[in-house]
Amino acid sequence: MTDTLLDRVRRFAEVHADPDGVAQTPIPGVTAIRATARSELQYAISRPLACLVLQGTKHVTMGNQAFTFGAGDSLLITADVPTVSQVTRASLVSPYLSLVLDLDLATVAELAMEMKAAPAPGGGPVRVEPTDAEVADAALRLMRLLDRPAAVPVLQAQLRRELHYWLLAGRHGPTIRRLGFPDSQVQRVARAVAVLRAEFARPIPMDRLAAAAGMSPSSFYAHFRAVTSLSPLQFQKQLRLIEARRLMLAHGRNVSSAAFAVGYESVPQFTREYRRMFGLPPVRETRAARMSAQATRMEAAAAG
């Protein structure tokens, strides 16, 4: 029997996926994703990652760009950017399956220096390319470690490093290399993004973010928008709204509690901005999301 990456990810995800279809592996930064039906729209501000799609189809939008990709494709995100994603083809018989690798910037920097490879100029933070054979092979060997738990702490680091190497050496390499240069615009903006992620619930002066990026305020604003497609204020607002949505859906918070928890002082303002981003007022949107999730679980239980 042929041992493929699809087989390995399917078996692991079937056993370990949570109700949202996320199966965290014991290997840092490696996650399997499984969906058995077309999903709702998922809003996120993604960190740099590579997503290897093994079965099914997914659609991702970032700003005015749209990407549809399926089995044999890899999605690359090289900056903290807001995305809206949706699994568009999946079923109980043939679920959507993918393997996600969080890109380790220190590993990228080390390898880029050893490879003496220059970054590509320009280019967007989201790309889709066919998965390189070497990348898939390294990912398969990484997943095989899960059958030997004693080997995971000993071997996972070098296999993750090898996987990063093949990503750098392959189709996505020129774009990923930009992450490996400490003084690149992407890396500078990333330092400001780290501040926003850590303190999104409080006001943060533009001067502080610019200082974190090592830029003048005017230069920082232009570079931040070029990398993320948003202004710093819009970025912080989306962080707040996405977290508030999570609090209401996953933890049952009411609207006012979620609004105040993420830094809003006005519930009406929160409601207006929430509706503008997600299309419905928070009460209706979270109720619809819960009902849809419950219906999906009931269908899966009936089919099982």
Overview of the structural elements:
This protein has twelve helices and ten strands. With 304 residues, it is of the alpha+beta class. The strands form two sheets. The protein has a six-stranded antiparallel sheet, with helices on one face. A four-stranded antiparallel sheet has the order 3-8-5-6. A hairpin with a 5-residue loop joins β1 and β2. The radius of gyration is 20 Å and the shape is globular.
Question: What's the arrangement of secondary structure elements?
Answer:
Blueprint: H1 5-16, E1 22-24, E2 30-35, E3 42-46, E4 49-55, E5 57-62, E6 65-70, E7 73-77, E8 81-89, E9 96-102, H2 105-115, E10 126-130, H3 133-144, H4 152-169, H5 173-176, H6 185-198, H7 206-213, H8 217-228, H9 232-251, H10 255-261, H11 267-278, H12 282-303
Antiparallel strand pairs: 1-2, 2-9, 3-8, 4-7, 4-9, 5-6, 5-8, 7-10
Helix pairs in contact: 2-4, 3-4, 6-7, 7-8, 9-10
Q: In angstroms, what separates the terminal alpha carbons?
A: 26 Å
Which of globular, elongated, flat, extended, rod-shaped describes the shape?
globular
Strand content: 15-25%
Measured on Cα atoms, how large is the radius of gyration?
20 Å
| Main pleated sheet | 6 strands, antiparallel
